[in-house]
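Reposting from the mailing list since nobody answered there.

I have sequence plus structure tokens for a pair of proteins and want to know whether others read the tokens the same way I do. The first protein:
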Amino acid sequence: MKHIDVIIIGGGPAGMSAAIWCKRLGVDHLLLEKEEKLGGQLTQIHNEIIDYPGLYAKNGKVMQQEFAAYFHNAGCLYRLHTKILSIDASSKTLKIQQENKIEKLHFHYLVLAMGSGPKLLEVPGEREMIARGEVYSATADRYRFKNKVVAVVGGGDRALEGAILLADADAAVYLIHRSENFKARSQYVDIVTKKENIKIITNTRVTSIHGEQCVTSIDLLNNKEKAFSLKVDAVFLRIGSKPNSELVKSLVKVAENELIVTDRIGQTSNSAIYAIGDICTNPLFSSIASSNGQAAIVAKYLSLLLTNEQTSKHKFISKFKP
């Protein structure tokens, strides 16, 4: 069985940064990514990324290409198309599958960087809609909905920004939110309330999505238990994200929102397992920049542990506090 000091699961910005730091620090490492390319959710970002100092990116694909180029130039070790079948924390082993080959790997430390995925409504017709490929970007696809009717579900920045983009492209927009008040920034709320082609429906949730070849309508239920339907040509789900923590729920402490609980170093309730990026509780607010910082902290700390240098000096920050 092959031994690797630090195995990183996930090839998004956090995982890539951890591998880069491991390479720089001379730490034996391997990054495992289930998809065919690195970058995580970056390629799903279609708008400009203007808050990453030192790198202006026209969209997430551009940033993914920049990150991947740096990653490859650094000489980081990684495998794509690799599925994690199981993790045994007691024996510090992973069972992985790459194409038809199943293999076991032994690790000293494990870094979880699986990120998050879009949260779903979990209503009838939703998964069928997704399976048909009816998952759209309000930035890239907005003009295809000119003179059509769409529903945007959610109350945060992404929902309201999407509703504004679609309305500006001459779509008729239903903005549906389960609560009374929006969580989005005030400037977005001001805009949507003034747009004549945005109809705001609050205190209401979507209960089902209809359509055989494509979406044709949705059913809704408000907080007064009144049910009604709307004819729509598309549904834009913008209800937040869900951590990809299912694989490790039995191994480490997980919060009610399914985020992995970590201390300020990134250590989980298992001393051999660390977590970084969108999958964990620290920091309070996530971003690409903060995930890169988390990766640097974890990689540097694990380097100290592995080389047994200055370990005692850092013990006070590595102790897990649930």
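The second protein, same order (residues first, tokens after):
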Amino acid sequence: MLRSVDLSDYIHKNPAKALADDRLFDAIDLITDNRLTGVCVVTEKEELVGILSEMDCLRAVIAATYNDTADVGRVSDFMTRGVQTCQLHDNVVDVANDMVAKGHRRRPVVDENGKLIGQISCRQILRVVSMFNRRKTR
């Protein structure tokens, strides 16, 4: 039953990430070159400190254009802080429900020390649901 499934087997275990001190344009290149909607932002010790989304980047670029500035700044200047996270053994349905309620496309997965160990996305959750549906209809 889907209600009893935890995230451990379904997370993306090596999500794209940037350091808070990285140049924003380097993170934008990472996002666009890899067709991502955002990246996790971590410290050098892999501790999650935020998320940088396409929208965060777009806001920064628009502000720089408006202010006629060549250097946009650092990832830490534009990332979203205080990110909602989950842990490996959280229930997939509970996580999906919370993501929908908050309008989030992705959820970082951290260990008990706040170290990034993966990420779960809407698409990955849909794959889990689809897989369970195929098993159920056989």
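Reply #1 (J.P.):
I read it the same way you do. The mean pLDDT is 90.
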